[in-house]
Amino acid sequence: MSEQLSLLLPVWAGDRPDFLTEAFRSSVDAQTRRPDQVVIVRDGPVPEPLAETIAELAKDSPVPVDVVELERNAGLGPALDAGLAACHHDVVARMDADDISLPHRFAVQMPIIESGVDIVGSGLVEFADDADEIVATRAVPTDPAEIRRRARFATPFNHPTVVYRRPLVTGVGGYTDFAKMEDYLLWAKLILADARVANVAEPLVKYRVGAGAYARRGGLELLRAEIAVQRRFRELGFTTRGQFVRNLVVRGGYRMVPEGLRRSAYRRVIAPYRR
């Protein structure tokens, strides 16, 4: 049975109008199966050119667009929770304001949701300046049991690629204000709630890697976020004591190694280049 889809797209002051336009067009106009609604969350005040772009995209969109305007920059988790409240449909797709969806993305993912799955992600490819020049591929586990196993050590979904059932997401409390780890915490809560999980191996999103990407994956702030989420996993019973210690050592250590070593590890293990 065909279901309707809401697209959830947060925007903040640091986003570029041209990147947002490309993200929106690729996820709406260019889709072989278009979403039925778009929810753009403006996370706090934005520069005038970006505000004008949001207004133009909403006006010219081939599907209805609702713009949720937050008075202040609340962060990604609260912004997404506000956007979920504005979604009209039970099925919601995520998209970031600087990435690119492949034209058949929703034509692939929606039948999987309609088959009874609660959340489905996909692989993605990374690019820097030219979307046709792929620098890395982020693969995902596709077996449901492997998705659940991997979640105890690393995020099993590429967040910008996911499509999920909104009632289940809001039923476990949504994203909440858990900076830098809100998506990973949500996946854990969904798995604990026995969500039916799936991934498509095929990359369905192109992910833009900007300057400073490797620096942002490390440092004291991210280490603190890592420790906080691992403690939360332990409190929820999502990880064992041994997994908790392992994650702090391995994942925490990754946050603190020099940027060059972190870049090498990321490219070799997490997102190697594959033709």
Q: In a nutshell, what does this entry contain?
A:
This protein has 275 residues and is an alpha/beta fold. It has helices at 17-27, 48-60, 76-86, 105-114, 144-151, 166-171, 182-192, 213-216, 220-236, 241-256, 259-270, and strands at 5-11, 37-43, 65-70, 91-94, 100-101, 119-127, 134-138, 163-165, 197-208. Strands 1, 2, 3, 4, 5, 6, 7, 8 and 9 form a nine-stranded mixed beta sheet that branches.
Major sheet, described briefly? 9 strands, mixed
The average pLDDT is 92
Q: What shape does the CA trace take?
A: globular
Number of helices: 11
- String of helices and strands: EHEHEHEEHEEHEHHEHHHH
Unreliable residue stretches: none
